[in-house]
UniProtKB/TrEMBL annotation:
Residues 1-19 form the signal peptide. Residues 21-96 form the Polysaccharide export protein N-terminal domain. The keyword Nucleotidyltransferase does not apply. It comes from Uliginosibacterium silvisoli. Keywords: Cell outer membrane, Ion transport, Lipoprotein, Membrane, Palmitate, Polysaccharide transport, Porin, Signal, Sugar transport, Transmembrane, Transmembrane beta strand, Transport. It is found in: Cell outer membrane. Belongs to the BexD/CtrA/VexA family. It is a multi-pass membrane protein. The gene is epsE. Residues 104-184 form the SLBB domain. It comes from the Bacteria. This is Polysaccharide export protein EpsE. Coiled coil: none annotated.
Length: 264
């Protein structure tokens, strides 16, 4: 049985070839590497890289345009050219995509290794690309914005990384396509000043309370008091509001926590 399978693979020119798993609507682009076989014509078996102009060099035919076509479309184009040229009467063409290079994703913002990365496989997902880029930097936020084109329309989705990874929500781990952009903004911060051990700016964690903010600042000094605690916050119009918070109140981005000095 094993010998039979090996013989079939050799017949189709498929031995020792590992095809990339791709959706049927994947469009070939420059840099993609494909392997083309023609049934009962082993001399026509060709492995080629799609050029910048979208073409490959194929025996008997010379340059054949496959860029911008799906796998089935490229098979049909090669078969038609072989038939029209009188080279093969009824060509049965099989095309395998062995390496994807033409499709790239731009990874921008607060990643450890931002840049442009190729889609090595057509079913690459967001978490895979985040890992390729070294993960989100310490200065990055918890939300990833993925933008691109789907079905000819502009596409944009905000992904909660905490929900995707820590909670295991696989529905957020969306598949990527060539031309997508992944962006992570800086993490929101808050500021704490006055009678605290370590005044300054700190990363604002999700649902962070005033008490947790005080802990981030190392706690109050001996002169500090909770009675004069204030939070300065800008409203949508840019006007600063002074809030007298409780320790359980949740902070917002760019809040300023002020710990005053005790008068006694």
């Amino acid at each position: 049985m094993k010998r039979f399978i090996a013989a079939v693979m050799l017949l189709f020119g498929m031995a020792n070839v590992f095809a990339v798993e791709t959706p049927t609507d994947y469009v070939l682009g420059p840099g993609d590497v494909i392997r083309v076989s023609v049934f009962q014509n082993p001399d026509l078996t060709t492995e080629a890289r799609v050029s910048e102009s979208g073409s490959i060099s194929f025996p008997l035919l010379g340059s054949v345009a496959v860029g911008g076509k799906t796998q089935a479309g490229a098979e049909g184009a090669i078969a038609k050219a072989l038939r029209d040229g009188g080279f093969v009467l009824k060509p049965q063409v099989t095309l395998l995509l062995t390496q994807i290079r033409g499709s790239q994703v731009a990874v921008l913002g607060q990643f450890n290794r931002p840049g442009r990365y190729p889609l090595e496989t057509a079913n690459l997902r967001l978490s895979d690309m985040m890992a390729t880029a070294g993960g989100i930097a310490q200065t990055g936020g918890d939300t990833v914005v993925v933008s691109g084109v789907r079905d000819g329309k502009q596409f944009k989705k905000e992904v909660d990384v905490t929900g995707m990874l820590r909670k295991g929500d696989a529905s957020l781990d969306i598949p990527l396509q060539g031309g997508d952009t992944i962006f992570v903004d800086r993490s929101p911060v808050f500021y704490i000043y006055g009678e605290v051990q370590r005044p300054g700016s700190f990363r604002l964690e999700r649902d962070m309370s005033v008490m947790q903010a005080l802990a981030s600042g190392g706690g109050m000094t001996l002169r500090g008091t909770l009675r004069g605690l204030e939070v300065h916050r800008r409203d949508p119009n840019g006007k600063v509001q002074v809030i007298k918070p409780t320790l359980a109140d949740v902070l917002q981005p760019d809040d300023i926590v002020l710990v005053k000095e005790s008068l006694f």
